[in-house]
Design goal:
two-stranded parallel sheet; mainly alpha; two-stranded antiparallel sheet; 200 residues; 2 domains; 40% helix
Length: 200
């Protein structure tokens, strides 16, 4: 009702296609082709509309769409934070018993200055989360580090082998090498038609 979700006893009707629902992170780093797919693919649009009446759709959207066989750069394997396969963000969870130098908010560490030594060793591109209304020290220090690395790129810091070794990167590279980048779009369209035939 309005901008609020209200709980009812009504069962949400199933999605029109037999789609395997996935749950994952609300945070994502996306290729342009995948963003275009999310915004313009007819099944994606229908799925987004269907999800709008569910709780926490942002945790289902990218994980589910990414597993569809015609999603550009997508893959149908399970990745987990325990296996360090999340590229998008570094996060500390209270339930894992990790130390938090800031404070816990909804079981997620809001980083403080003493988390900096851990943060700078993480390969993820984004760190979640900070609260500059409480303490700006950690953010200020990281900004200074980024500025320094920008001015002195030869100081290292980026370990490209980590990114190249991620399972989803390997799958995409192997697939495009196998069928060629020119035929990749046609391959994805064929995958979609086959999926619709099996799940329609």
């Amino acid at each position: 009702v309005g901008n609020k979700m209200i709980e009812t006893n009504n069962t949400h009707p199933p999605f029109r296609y037999r789609i395997k629902m996935r749950k994952g992170s609300a945070y994502a780093m996306l290729k342009y082709d995948f963003v275009n797919f999310v915004l313009h693919d007819d099944i994606s649009e229908e799925f987004i509309s269907w999800l709008s009446e569910t709780y926490s759709p942002e945790e289902t959207l990218f994980a589910t769409l990414n597993s569809l066989p015609w999603a550009p750069g997508g893959y149908d394997i399970e990745t987990s934070e325990d296996n360090s396969t999340f590229l998008s963000r570094a996060v500390k969870w209270q339930m894992k018993g990790e130390a938090c130098g800031g404070r816990w908010v909804r079981a997620v560490c809001v980083y403080g200055p003493s988390d900096l030594s851990w943060l700078v060793k993480q390969p993820q591109v984004i760190a979640n989360k900070f609260d500059i209304n409480v303490d700006t020290t950690a953010v200020d220090c990281l900004e200074e580090r980024i500025r320094y690395r920008t001015q002195h790129p030869d100081t290292g810091g980026m370990t490209w082998s980590y990114y190249k070794g991620l399972p989803h990167v390997k799958i995409y590279q192997n697939l495009t090498q196998k069928i060629g980048t020119q035929r990749y779009s046609k391959f994805l369209e064929n995958q979609k038609q086959e999926w619709i035939r099996r799940n329609g």
